[in-house]
Write a structure and sequence with these properties.
Elements: H1 2-16, E1 28-29, E2 31-37, E3 40-41, E4 46-51, E5 54-61, E6 67-69, E7 79-80, E8 82-89, E9 91-93, E10 117-119, E11 134-137, E12 142-148
Parallel strand pairs: 2-12
Antiparallel strand pairs: 1-7, 2-3, 2-6, 4-5, 4-8, 8-11, 9-10
């Protein structure tokens, strides 16, 4: 029980520091992304734009048409203006590697290994060094399409 209270207190203190400071915000521009794989829209893909000089990612999750609007500081405010490395991933839990949590495991926070994830698009797109995707976000509206291949 003590561990649960400690974990909750730590989590709340970390969240308190995540509010952000408006003075540190970089300019953003509305950015819409479309993702296809093998010619088909990709629903549920996570898209991230990361600028070289700012670790704050601009993120979105694609809908059934493969489209999303990116958010950086607040919902749909767009991506940070400038050159960005792009990462796209879509995973699901590999059902073959999941075991149910037993009641006796409830107090063993961190002991149960996380489930193994299976990539539904090539994993090379999920890392900035291997995705090969880079875009320039400019003032005004931005629209990018990524046609992913094997």
């Amino acid at each position: 029980m003590f561990r649960m209270i400690l974990l909750l207190a730590t989590s709340l203190s970390l969240l308190a520091g995540c509010g952000g400071n408006d003075g540190n915000r970089r300019p953003t521009a509305p950015t819409t992304v479309t993702v296809t794989y093998r010619g088909n829209p990709v629903e549920g893909a996570t898209v991230q734009f990361v600028t070289v000089d700012d670790p704050k990612p601009s993120t979105g999750i694609t809908d059934k048409s493969g489209q999303c609007s990116l958010s950086t500081y607040e919902a749909k405010d767009g991506a940070i203006i400038g050159s960005s490395l792009v990462m796209i991933s879509k995973t699901e839990v590999d059902d073959k590697n999941v075991r149910p949590v037993a009641p006796e495991d409830a107090d063993m926070v961190g002991v149960i290994p996380p489930p193994i994830l299976k990539n539904l698009i090539p994993s090379k797109y999920s890392l900035p060094g291997t995705s090969g995707l880079k875009e320039e976000v400019k003032k005004g509206r931005n629209e990018f399409t990524f046609d992913l291949v094997d």
